[in-house]
Amino acid sequence: MGDYTPAMTRWIFLPLLALLLSACVMPQPRTDANLTPLVRANFQSTALPKSWIELNGEVTVVDGALRLPAEPLQLHGVMFGPALLDNLRVDARFRAESKRRQFPEFGLGLNGISGFRVMVSPGQKKLKLFRNDVLVHEINHTWVPGNWTHMTLQIQSLPGLKWRLMAKIWHNSELEPKEWQLFWTESVEPLAGRATVWGQPFSGTPIAVDDLRVWRVD
Question: How far apart are alpha carbons 126 and 120 in whole angstroms?
């Protein structure tokens, strides 16, 4: 092999040095757990997944969406996904109708049946956060009947044995809000539990639920 001149050496090593420096200073792509849901269901099949548990009433899959029954007039739901404690997010969309002055209520939850549940209450124009059926916080919200309503609920652990609950809601004709809308700090440790969706058909019509997802969050 022949000798390298100083000029040849520069042409060989300068590109290599630039490549090494760019690897050090340029941000590297990373795998974000939030991009890969633990659960994702859009109901292409007409059967409810075998691991899902119906809560009060017969839940069916109709026209590519989960259908919470219109009768009896009580709170119906489904429990799904792995049983986990915190650093979780659940997302779904709902569609329901009103009848004169009768309105449905619907929402989603984390940490099982006795955990947290965020519910739309159209009659009171509120978005409510419950823990084990106890109302802990609420904000104003005006529901649009017949339109798909998107909801997201998240729980994250905080230093000092505290947990942060956050929720947001928007309609199909709107963009997803960049900021969370409902906030609550919990100081009593929740139990590990599965995600849930809920519906109470006060209007006597079924409630459709679609695009259910559960993520791990940082």
Answer: 6
- Any bridge partners for residue 119, and if so which? 107, 128
Q: How far is Cα of residue 198 from the mean position of the Cα atoms in its chain?
A: 13
Question: Is the separation of the CB atoms in 165 and 42 below 8 Å?
Answer: no
Model pLDDT, residue 36 = 84
Question: Is 180 a residue whose pLDDT tops 50?
Answer: yes
Task: Tell me how crowded residue 91 is: count the other CB atoms within 10 A of its CB.
Answer: 20
Query: 208 is written with which tokens?
Result: 């459709």
Please check whether residue 168 is in contact with residue 152, taking contact to mean a CB–CB distance below 8 angstroms. yes
Report the alpha-carbon distance of residue 199 to residue 143 in Å, rounded.
14
Amino acid at 199: G
**141 touches 120 (CB < 8 A):** yes
Strand, coil or helix: 21: helix
Domains annotated for the chain, with CATH where assigned, are 33-216 (2.60.120.560)
Alpha-carbon distance of 217 to 129, in angstroms, equals: 20
* CA atoms of 124 and 120, how far apart (whole Å): 9
DSSP structure string for 26-62 = SPPP---GGGS-SEEE---SSS--TT-EEESS--EEE
d(CA 138, CA 28): 41
Is 70 exceeded by the pLDDT of residue 28? Answer: no
Report residue 70 as tokens: 């219109």
| Contacts for 92 with CB less than 8 Å, ≥ 6 apart | 108, 150, 151, 197, 209, 210, 211, 212, 213
Question: What pTM was estimated for this model as a whole?
Answer: 0.82
3-class secondary-structure state, position 12: helix
